[in-house]
Structure formats: C-alpha cells, structure tokens
Amino acid sequence: MKNIFFLSLVFLSTTAFALTETIKVAVTEKGFEPSVIKVDSKKETILSFTRKTDSTCAKEIVFVSKKIKRDLPLNTVVAINLGKLPKGEVKFSCGMDMVSGVINVQ
Ligand SMILES: [Cu+2]
Predict the structure, then answer these.
(1) Which domain holds residue 35?
(2) d(CA 94, ligand 1 centre) in Å
(3) How far apart are the CA of 53 and the centre of ligand 1, in A?
(4) Which terminus of the chain, N or C, has fewer Cβ atoms within 10 Å?
C-alpha cells in the first residue's frame, strides 16, 4: 500500500513536470539566441524573451501564425505561452521580419 502511494506520487510529479517547457531566448546584436528552438508537441511551450541590447530592431516579437505581437522592453523578461503546438514549424520575428527565428515542434 505504501509502495502504491509512493509510485502515484512519483507519477504525478513527473507528469506535472512534463506539462510545460520553458525556453529562454535572448535578443542580442546577433538576433534571437537561440534562433532555432526544438520543442515537444506533447508539452505546452513557453518562450521567455529578454532583450539585452538597444542595438537591434527586435524591440517587439511577432508570431504571425499565432496572431501574437508583444513589446520587448530592454532587460525585461517577457514570457509568451504558446500552448501545445502541432508538429511543424512556428516562425517568429521582429515587427519588420528582419530578425527571425523558428520553433521546430517534434
Ligand atoms: Cu526589425
């Protein structure tokens, strides 16, 4: 009985752990780092952006296919929950589509 209780706890904690995946993305003079991001289609994806330079035009982030557009204030964490994504690619870019990256959903 004790074992069953323990196993359920382990199961519950691993399940909870696997629900979301947060990936940190920095905005630097080189663009988005990383600019190619692999995620799991079974998990909710959260991208956590921090713009670390003023020498970039990526002062906002746009996910055209998801109709998401957010400002990226300097040195401020902006977390965007994209939910579960279908397998394939989701592109993101600055407002003018000059600096870009891609999420590879597997
Ligand atoms: Cu731009």
Answers:
(1) 20-105
(2) 5
(3) 13
(4) N
